[in-house]
Amino acid sequence: MPELGLASLLLPSAAAAVSLQGDEAEGEAGGGGGRSNDKSTPTTMGKKAMSPKFAFRTKSPNDILDDGYRWRKYGQKAVKNSPYPRSYYRCTHHTCNVKKQVQRQSKDASIVVTTYEGIHNHPCEKLMEAFAPLLKQIQFLTGL
After folding, report:
1. Is residue 84 within 8 Å of 108, Cβ to Cβ?
2. Which residues is 103 bridged to in the sheet?
3. Ramachandran assignment for 92, one of left (phi > 0), alpha (psi -120 to 50 degrees), beta (any other)
4. Burial grade of 81 (CB within 10 A; 0-12, 13-18, 19 or more)
5. Percentage of residues in the chain with pLDDT exceeding 70?
6. Fold topology of 6-142
7. Average model confidence (pLDDT) for the chain?
8. What keyword terms does UniProt attach to this protein (predicted)?
9. Which of 50, 46, 43 is nearest to 23 (CA)?
10. Which residues fall within 8 angstroms of residue 44, CB to CB, at 6 or more apart?
């Protein structure tokens, strides 16, 4: 499988998306309290809205892939029937609530599955660092 670049992270394609076992059942149970005659819908009962999830499979010898954002690791757990643990990360930007999970595939250890939950509400730090010299040149040339 070819390595997916930053462009595929920004514009996810259906071919790159995968579903992870165990993640599909989270938050999809009915929102009722067991009553069948309850007329409330799950959205009116205070159920938290689901953030969009995108998963990518990348062939890489490294578990930590640089996607341009800065992440803080907040957990790791063993996964049933897999020799590889799943790591949990949060975006370090103060207003951003995006999370990601990183795990190696148990059948093919060369593939890393990265699942993003949510959408960043700030520009990519690496992209801004790359454009900083160009912006300084523009300011110098325009006299701002």
Report:
1. no
2. 113
3. alpha
4. exposed
5. 56
6. N-terminal domain of TfIIb (2.20.25)
7. 72
8. DNA-binding, Nucleus, Signal, Transcription, Transcription regulation
9. 50
10. none
Instruction: Give the type of residue at 63.
Output: D
The answer to whether the Cα torsion of 27, 7, 129, 131 is positive or negative is: negative
What does 73-136 look like in DSSP terms, one character per residue?
EEEEE--TT-SS-EEEEEE-STT---EEEEEE-SS-TTEEEEEEES--SS--HHHHHHHHHHHH
Degrees to nearest 5, angle at CA 63 with 54 and 72: 70
pLDDT tens digits along 4-26: 444 333 333 333 344 443 443 33
Looking only at the bridges linking them, the beta strands covering 53-59 and 71-77 are unpaired
One-letter identity of residue 54: F
β-strand pairing of 53-59 with 111-117: antiparallel
Q: Where are the domains of the chain?
A: 6-142
Whether 119 shows a pLDDT value over 70: the answer reads: yes
Q: What is the pLDDT of residues 104-117, one digit of tens each?
A: 999 999 999 999 99
